[in-house]
Design brief:
The protein contains one helix and eight strands. It is mainly beta. The chain has a single domain, classed as Factor Xa Inhibitor, CATH 4.10.410.40. Strands 1, 2, 3, 4, 5, 6, 7 and 8 form an eight-stranded antiparallel sheet that branches. Strand 6 and strand 7 form a beta hairpin. It is elongated and about 65 Å long. The two termini are 18 Å apart.
């Protein structure tokens, strides 16, 4: 497996159309993806002392966090609007290999910060709502 460039790990936001067209949230410096799953324990006294889990059961979710420099792009403006309204929308994560993941997400956190002589920075967190698919 080849090493992939971190700058090619992009977060994109949909335009609200069906099907959505995606625009890159500009100015991202770091992006992180976490796939989370909850196990359903089906251990019985017949399990021989070993825990048994039920395949395909439980709750799965995807969390995304990112940080970057504010550029005032249309994608950032749309993302900020979703953070303020609590709207869920389509997002896409794309990787250098060409793999993509798409799903609907809620902006659960959007922070802005800036120094007197520096650029305005932001951090954000997204939580999935529904299935996230790998393309």
């Amino acid at each position: 497996m080849a090493i992939e460039n971190g700058s090619a790990f992009l977060l994109k936001i949909g335009d609200g159309a069906v099907p959505p067209a995606y625009a890159t949230v500009a100015g991202l410096r770091t992006t992180q993806l976490s796939v989370n799953g909850e196990a359903v324990n089906v251990t019985t006294k017949d399990s021989g002392g070993w825990r048994e889990l039920l395949s395909g059961a439980g709750v799965r979710s995807v969390s995304v966090s990112a940080a970057g420099i504010f550029t005032g792009s249309d994608a950032e403006t749309r993302l900020r609007g979703h953070a303020l309204s609590g709207a869920i929308d389509a997002y896409e994560l794309s990787f250098e290999s060409g793999e993509r993941m798409q799903g609907r997400f809620l902006v659960t956190r959007l922070d802005y910060a800036g120094d007197y002589n520096g650029e305005r920075q932001y951090t954000l967190n997204l939580e999935s709502s529904g299935a996230v698919v790998s393309l």
